[in-house]
Structures are given as structure tokens and as C-alpha cells.
Amino acid sequence: MSLIQDVITKVKEKDPAQPEFHQAAEEVLTSLEPTIERHPEFVEAKIYERIVEPDRVLMFRVPWEDDAGEVHVNRGFRVQFNNALGPYKGGLRFHPSVNLGIIKFLGFEQTFKNSLTTLPMGGGKGGSDFNPKGKSDREVMRFCYAFMRELFRHIGPDTDVPAGDIGVGSREIGYLYGMYKKLRNEHTGVLTGKGREYGGSLLRPEATGYGGIYFVQEMLATQGESLQGKTVTVSGFGNVAWGAAQKLSQLGAKVITLSGPDGYIYDPEGVSGEKVEYMLELRFSNNDIVEPYAEKFGVEFFKGKRPWEVKCDIALPCATQNELNESDAQNLIDNETKLVAELSNMGCTPEAIELFSEHNIIFAPGKAVNAGGVSTSGLEMSQNSLRLSWTSEEVDQRLHGIMKSIHKASLEAAEAYGAPGDYLVGANIAGFLKVAKAMLAYGIV
Ligand code: 2IT
After folding, report:
1. How far, in Å, is the centroid of ligand 1 from the Cα of 317?
2. Minimal-distance CA residue to ligand 1 atom 3
3. Residue 197 falls within a domain, yes or no?
4. Which domain holds residue 306?
5. Would you state the pLDDT for residue 286?
6. Do 215 and 346 belong to one domain?
7. What is the rounded CA–CA span in Å between residue 240 and residue 263?
8. Ligand 1 pocket test target in 159, 369, 377, 395 with most atoms within 8 Å of CB
9. What's the rounded Cα separation, in Å, for the pair 282 and 321?
10. Which residue, of 155, 187, 219, is where some domain finishes?
11. 268 by DSSP, 3-state: which?
């Protein structure tokens, strides 16, 4: 058996109940195959075996009281995956689907993503199976306080710097930071995605979406194309979809779908202007449904369906993992879609990605495309350390430069390791090499 296959088998055997982690590890390791021959030093130091094992896994009880005085118990997680390149960095996800396997997959991906950003950040991820849907503001506050009452002892501005993800936005970051500050009596850059008034960076809310679209622009440029006049299907209606819709409409593309767990809306006129603003209202209503958009703007709503059946030039998964499967990919192929880029983490199933490659659809993976979010978190950390704040133009310029460099590094690594034009292989290899070289430098530790 090849070394890579052996590592994949062991990952699956060790933690059989973590399918998302298996999927992420298998995808990354498989694309690292061409690095084995060129780097016997990695093989000797067992870098491949070590890189799939998190530095540390924290799992804790989060008890809290609802508005009626009833006690609830949730599970909290922080996986500190790899700090070879810098302090652990990555978001917190609050969603009922959260379990250890999902947080491990996200932490693993984050390690390579953060490496690609060019900034000094290791990889981590955390969260809880807490469901924010339908909770009152005070309930969310009490939950965030309870979560931080345990997490605070494990994090710090030079140790581990969490941020938001699904279910964790500026409100939650405010409560989490408030409790951290209270417990430690320190005002420091321990979280990113903070409010403007207390150390947040301009453009952090927009950054994942904007960065993703800058990346898509680069992909199109390699084909001599631009976004002007393109039709785009977008899934989700949260922070990522919002930033993407804003930037796409600025650049002359037309966003024709948004989706939620309830179904998708089809807006042939395009989601722009006040409709993009309305996405914020939808999100803050805390119901996790997109249908009210259809009622408000008089467009069609397709209950229980995903947007990938709609004809488009470009498809952008912006919601969650495995939201685009093999049959969705077949729909896109039948509709002659040209490009798919993941703004969600691991948005496409391996079978879908396989179909894209068979049918020459250009595809780029989340760890490259959505890295603008964590990059801007890195810029927030820089500003906090400098005790300065940059203008939005300055942040945007840096973000744009970072996305261009991720695109370039991915294509260069793909070319150098025998898979020209393959963004998946390129991003995995480019992200891996830097982490692996740093790990090697530290010895066996
Ligand atoms: O998946 C991601 O990269 C994020 N949720 C952002 C993480 C961060 O630390 O800003």
C-alpha cells in the first residue's frame, strides 16, 4: 500500500465516526501524492502521519439557562490543529450539526488555508451544537458567556485567536469578547470579527465574500474572461453570500439565486442594491429561512430545493459543507456552467468535484477561494498589535493582493507538481509545503 493510502486508512480506523474529517483528510492527502517523491525528508520525519493529528482537542460542557429559567447543556469544542506557522486561528461555529468530526475537518482545512494566506497563522476551529435559531438575544448572550467561561483559559492573542463562522457573527463575538475581557482583565486581540469600536477591522464582515469574488476574477482572467454580464447562482443568505452578492453586483455580474435550509429563491433581475441590504435583515431575524425574500420582492421560491438546477455561467456554494453533490453537479454540466468556486468550506462532495474535472468545468476549493475572511482576520490581528486601524481602502488593497497571491501560488504549485490548472491539487500542495517545512525545522516535537 502507498504511504498516502496507509495514512488515509489509519485516519478512518482511528476515528470511525468522523466522516467529514475522513473526507477532508482523504482529499488533501491524495493530492499530496506527488510531494512524496520530491521530499523524502517529509517521509522520514513522518510529516504525513503527523499532519492529520491535531495538536490538541478540547471538548467541554456548556450549561446555560433559557429565558424561562430552564437549564440546557450543550457541548463546546476547540480543536487546536496545528500552530507551526503562527497562533491557532479559525472560527467558531454554532449549529446543531456540530460535532467533533466536523470541527476537526474544519480545523484541518484551516491549517492549509491559513498557510495560503501568506500571514503567520496556524489552524484551529471550534464551536458548539447550540442552535441559535429562535433564541432570544439574552439567551444567546448567556450561552456565549457560558461558552467563554471555559474557553478563555485555552486561548490568547499569541496562543489561539477564534472568530466567527456559521451562527457566530458580530453580536456573538461582542458577548464572547465581553466575557473574555471580564475574566482576564485584558483588552487584547484575542478574537477577530470584533466591532469597529473595540478593535475590529473595517471590511472584515465583507471580506470572505469580497475575497472569493476577487479569486473568481483571477480564475476568469486566466480564460481571458471577466465577470461582466455573467449569471451567478449563489447558495446561502448569510455573511458569505452577502459579501459575494455585493461584490458581484458591483462588478457587473447578476446573482440570480439565494438559498436557505427551506429552499431557494430565483430572482432573474438579480440580487443587488436594497435586495443585498435586505439579506442582513433576513439574517438578523434569526429564523434561518430565505422564503420571505420571495414574498418581499415578488420572485419565485422553490421549497426544499437547491439552486444548482438553475442555468448559470458560474455557481458559488456559499452555505456549508457538502451542499453540492453529484446530481447537482450533473445539473450544472447539463446547463453548461463554466466555473464553480467554493466559498463555503468543502462545499462540494468528492463525486461532484470528480464530475467537474471530467467535464472541464473549472473548479477551485474553499481553502483557496474563501481565505479572504481569515486573511482579513489576520489583518485585524496586525492592527490590534500595532494599536492602529487602517482605512477600508488599505484593508481592501491588502485583501486583494492576498487573493491574487493565493491564486498564483495555487496555479504555480499545480504546475510544478504535474497537475497544471488544477486548483484543488495546487492549493493543497502550496498550503501543505509551508506547514511541512516549518514542522521539519522544529524537529520531532
Ligand atoms: O472558515 C473560515 O475561514 C472562517 N470562518 C474565518 C476564520 C477566521 O478566523 O476569521
Report:
1. 16
2. 374
3. no
4. 207-369
5. 85
6. yes
7. 18
8. 377
9. 22
10. 187
11. coil
